[in-house]
Amino acid sequence: MITKAIFRALDGKATWLVAILLLVALAIPFANLVLPEGNPLHLPNFMVPLLGKYVTYAMLALALDLVWGYCGILSLGHAAFFALGGYAMGMYLMRQIGSRGVYGNPILPDFMVFLNYKDLPWFWYGFDNFWFACLIVLLVPGLLAFVFGFLAFRSRVTGVYLSIITQAMTYALLLAFFRNDFGFGGNNGLTDFKDILGFNIQAASTRAALFAASMIALALAVLVCSAIVNSKLGKVMVAIRDAESRTRFLGYRVDNIKLFAFVVSALIAAIAGALYVPQVGIINPGEFEPANSIEVVIWTAVGGRGTIIGPIIGGLLVNAGKTFFTGIWPDYWLYALGALFVFVTLFFPKGIVGSLRSLFSRRATPRGDNMQPEENGQTDKPMITDTQPEAAE
Predict the structure, then answer these.
(1) For 314, which of 248, 299, 342, 355 could close a Cys bridge (C-beta 3.0–4.6 Å)?
(2) What CATH number does domain 7-365 carry, 3.40.1000, 1.10.10, 1.10.3470, 3.30.920?
(3) What is the mean pLDDT of the chain?
(4) Under DSSP, is residue 196 helix (H, G, I), strand (E, B) or coil?
């Protein structure tokens, strides 16, 4: 019954997008593992984790779009949920190192031995189990999003004030995780991973599997987001985005709806962070940087907020461009990124997907439908009579 309800809420575009993502999840590992190196379609080993990183970024952009594009909540703190999910997975990977670390301690990670820890901190217990790490990936960011959203939305904090508070939350976590006595590796973070689920994390087959897992997770995120935005709840979310006060006056529990969207978005971002860490090989407090959250906003704006496919395209294109241009002009990338955001804001406020949709819809509209109301014998002026004083007001 639940599955049927989900597919009824999906539109055809989301179904095609999911099919394409699943196809790519099979094609990339095939091109890397099966096709020989002499084949023009062969994908080198270094490209697989790089593409996997792009996929996790696209998933993060989709998470932001759910709250910004459809609910009007401009969060500048989604990097916090992404990093918390990454740290949870990183803690599991650190526990898998065991005695193979530099100091050979079977229990304590290397940074704890270096900092003279005597015992494993209590919040590291259980991370030798993969299922426990997956639970924490969802539990901690989800709980943080729930508590933060409950307090903020119940207090009716909106607009730029909410954006500043989310950025302050991310910066506070940045300062906390930078501390060596916080128990998460301080400035260096967590790195030097060896295994995941018993498989060598550096092996080509493992990296291909991680890429496939990232694509499948992105496809599932598309399913969830599409089911939400195409349901009655999604229509109310759009109404909150466009006219929150009117929606509240109609009797809807605006605070609860915004809280639901915020928590779901945080969970998607956390899963993206958990998939990001084993492919990149490190997680440190730099992932909490407020600038990272701002970049996510740029990805979403470039692709087109208020669409499902737009943030995915924006996340992939901008990060691919970042890799290319930082290799050529590393000192000018931030200027290019800022110029891109200004250009999109001024000339393509709907982003790539939104602008293309508007263009195609204008071309598909018959000429008679583009006529002004006066040309059709109509007028856009309200008809006001003596029997309708409210309309005159």
Answers:
(1) 299
(2) 1.10.3470
(3) 88
(4) strand
Q: Where are the domains of the chain?
A: 7-365
The answer to whether the Cα torsion of 149, 150, 151, 156 is positive or negative is positive
CA–CA distance, 71 with 67 (Å, rounded to integer): 5
Q: What is the pLDDT of residue 368?
A: 53
C-alpha span between 335 and 349 (Å, rounded): 19
pLDDT at position 376: 44
Distance from first CA to last CA of the chain, Å, rounded? Answer: 49
Give the predicted TM-score (pTM) of the model: 0.88
At CB < 8 A and 24+ separation, what contacts does 314-318 make? Answer: 314/61, 314/351, 314/352, 315/54, 315/57, 315/58, 315/59, 315/60, 315/61, 315/62, 316/54, 316/55, 316/57, 316/58, 317/352
> Higher confidence at residue 390 or residue 108?
108
* Rounded Cα distance, 35 and 180, in Å: 46
Task: Give strand pairing partners of 283.
Answer: 190
CA–CA distances in Å: residue 269 to residues 39, 248, 276: 36, 28, 10
Q: Give the three-state DSSP class for 200.
A: strand
User: pLDDT, tens digit, for every residue of 270-288?
Assistant: 999 999 999 999 999 999 9
Q: How many residues does the chain have?
A: 393
> Coil, strand, or helix at residue 190?
strand
Q: Are strands 195-196 and 190-191 parallel, antiparallel or unpaired?
A: unpaired
pLDDT band at 110 (very low <50, low <70, confident <90, very high): very high
Q: What is the dihedral of CA 343, 348, 350, 356, to 10 degrees?
A: -140
Give 366-387 pLDDT, tens digit per residue.
Answer: 655 554 444 444 444 443 334 4
- At residue 311 the predicted structure's pLDDT band, cuts being 50, 70 and 90, is very high
